[in-house]
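haha ok so turns out i had the wrong file open the whole time. this is the CORRECT one, sorry everyone. sequence first:
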Amino acid sequence: MNVDSAGLHVLSRQECIDLLSSTPIGRIVFTDRALPAVQPVNFYLDGEDIVIRTGAGSKLAAATRHTVVAFEIDDFDAEARTGWSVTAVGHARAVSDITEIARLSMLPLTAWAPGDRDHFIVMRTEQISGRRIRR
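then structure:
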């Protein structure tokens, strides 16, 4: 078991990918008007790509066109003092290819927020890391 300087278990890339596929909600970190912004989103893991469905005119859609973004998921049990966190970093791109849009539309990804969500953002997980805390 690999442990960091704080005593947290360092997760392997595969453990991080497995955890990414285990939850439907994460947080994307992007730049909005030169400031960091964080937005909770539902997503689907397509291979190692994070797929988000949003509105074409949203701040998120505008801010993630061919930019570097971060994505984070976690789960904690406050009573047991256990939990884990996974962070991915990579380039996000707006999907414009009709064939790819058709394929992504078939994924089990339904937006929770109201309104039209006909725009897809794909983030490649270029870097990924995670930590787990156990008692």
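The first strand starts at residue 9 and ends at 10.
again sry for the mixup
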